[in-house]
Design goal:
It is a single chain. By secondary structure, this protein is mainly alpha-helical. The protein is built from 13 helices and 2 strands.
Length: 327
Amino acid sequence: MMKTQNRFLIVVLSILFVSTCVSAQLTANYYSKTCPNVESIVRSAVLKKFQQTFVTVPATLRLFFHDCFVRGCDASVLLASPSNSAEKDHPDNLSLAGDGFDTVVKAKAAVDSVPQCKNKVSCADILALATRDVINLAGGPFYGVELGRRDGRISTKAGVQRKLPGPHFNLTQLNSLFASHSLSQTDMIALSGAHTLGFSHCSRFSKRIYNYTPKNRIDPTLNFQYAIQLRQMCPTRVDSRIAINMDPTTPQLFDNAYFKNLQQGKGLFTSDQILYTDPRSRPTVNLFASNNVAFQNAFISAIQKLGRVGVLTGTKGEIRNDCSRIN
């Protein structure tokens, strides 16, 4: 009987220990002793970059998302390869704007310019902080960022395959991909709201306005007048790399206009508009469209959960001296 009780106690303690370790992986005050001013240092560098170009905002936010969804939030997307075989070289990442990378580089330089902080803060944490800061600078919420991520040492083009959502995804495909990272449908819809910022190239949605089906040249779920406007901005004989704002109403403001646009058939991608046309997700779109606070609260919850995906902590990975290469 005593042996059974002891075994039970050991099992319980083991579970508690594992749970404690998991919850303690990332903490808000991780750098309190090694680099106590890291957040203000990063924010100052991000603000300076933001004042130079607004592209800093969507570029940094998209960089964070692409990083976390491939190998977890380990800054592997920042690694460069002399043979062009890193994550950033995959076709799905070639459209990542250089200003996102530059934001992290400048923030890293600012952090390392402080002797106490030099080579103490990971590129992954700097990217997470910079992402929060650009969202806030664009009018979005300010939220706490958990820290303690380590930088990954692996970055391969092949590793990106089927890890990122495509512009033609339906709701089931979106839910499945996000669920693989422990993100719910509500998380997915909230994170999709980040499309209130940024732009896309014509080639990513041209089929919806020119060659949808033999019967319907324009996607019937797309607002017809909006489709005509898109045709004018994306004529067939003009470079398909022309950039179009994802949000046609307030493209430089982090707000809930994205969801209002979906209600009017103005989602640029199929994967955007499906959130409204599919009855499973429409109630959440309607909620976020009518209540900006509800959207922002859901977004905070979702992006904090995203920031925990596949993180390296403790002795795993490293803290890179140069974000573009392993030590």
